[in-house]
Amino acid sequence: MQPYELFIGLRYSRAKRRNHFVSFISLISIIGMALGITVLISVMSVMNGFQREIRERILGVVSHVQIVGADSRLADWQKVAGEAENHPQVVAAAPYISEQALLSFGESVKGTIVRGILPEYENKVVDLGRHMKVGQLSSLRPGEFGIILGVDLARALGVMAGDKLLLIAPQGLVTPAGILPRLKQFTVVGVFDAGHYEYDAGLALIHLEDAQKLYRMDHEVTGVRLRLKDLYKAPQVARDLTRMLTVDAAVIDWTRINANFFRAVDIEKRMMFFVVVLIVAVAAFNIVSTLVMAVTDKQTEIAILRTLGAPPSSIMKIFVVQGTLIGVLGTLLGLAGGIALALNIDVVVPFIEHLFGIRFLAKDVYYISELPSEVQFMDVAVIGAVSFALCLIATLYPSWRASRVNPAEALRYE
Question: How far is residue 43 from each of residues 38, 88, 193, 199, 341, measured CA to CA in Å?
């Protein structure tokens, strides 16, 4: 690009006394671009924040990787845990038993998943300990038949710490009178609140030895749960462990356990991106109308440049510079505004709620009562690149039209 092309393109971007309207439209285009990009970055950051919150809440209950024995039976869990811990990514392992049961208290009966755990091991593989509202995981002791319930399950049954409830196991006792269900009285020793309804309303924890006695599993367990250094490497670790283990077992990572849920969140995030990009596209293509008016306004100058020897490609570059400048200014302002808003969403949203007396995420309706935000600079880079590309595309037609101006026609009445 020749220096004069850049100079003239920048000069055309400034206001002229005889035509402020073109410059006003340019300003509107810049503001539109900036607002669109600000909204896009804010929306993507909030979606990232929700994704992070949901992931953390699920992983407060679900381990990074689970090794499940054939027919949900694993005889020597210590051996399996030792083999798994040989992998450099595995930092902790814990045995567990997972079975179904009915819980009865008074007239209330609820179905639930019963998980047998060793408290001293469980705290190493999940963060459930920090979600305890009442009691501690260490309150589960072998032989005492204590039970810890999810907060919604406890509320549905109407129980509190210290209450005794009846656990009905599906494995029955064979008697001359027929098959009778196995019943055992448990004492509520704790309540947890993981912030995820599926687990808060459908999970109960008991000691591993109590679960083995109740479900007649002797020294067997359902499987082993693992914690990794990097949770995002769980799929690769699961594939590695499938080859490493010497027992017949299935290895499942956390992305497969909740595959449908995370896939739905990811699809929603992508769709939000494309929807909001349309706002940026509308703002970007305002540049078309701006440059078309600029070309019409500058036809005499274009004709003079052509008669002085400027080729059509130079004329085209002049207006590409003008349109690109509008796009760059709008993009930079939008990126700055979007990042600033996303980083301060926890201040801006409460201010809006207080100002208008509304509540976006009511605590009695939503489990996440505050808008989370996480700025991922890869998203920012993609948004900036897409916005700039849209602006560049928007300059092509007006610039091409400028290069096609006929000097004789433009100067006929001058």
Answer: 9, 37, 28, 28, 10
Do 5 and 301 meet the contact criterion of CB atoms below 8 Å apart? no
Output the pTM of the full model: 0.70
- Residue 145: partners with Cβ closer than 8 Å, 6 or more residues away: 184, 185, 186, 187, 206, 207, 210
Tokens linked to 46: 């909030």
Domain final residue pick, 254, 282, 297? 254
Q: Taking the CB of residue 222, how many other CB atoms lie within 10 A of it? A: 24
141: tokens are 């002791």
203-241 pLDDT per residue, tens: 999 999 999 999 888 889 999 999 999 888 889 999 999
* Cα–Cα nearest to 406, from 320, 323, 308, 307: 307
Rounded distance between C-alpha atoms, residue 203 and residue 201, angstroms: 6
- Domain range for 298 is 3-56+262-410
| Same-domain check for residues 130 and 214 | yes
Domain boundary (196, 230, 254) is at: 254
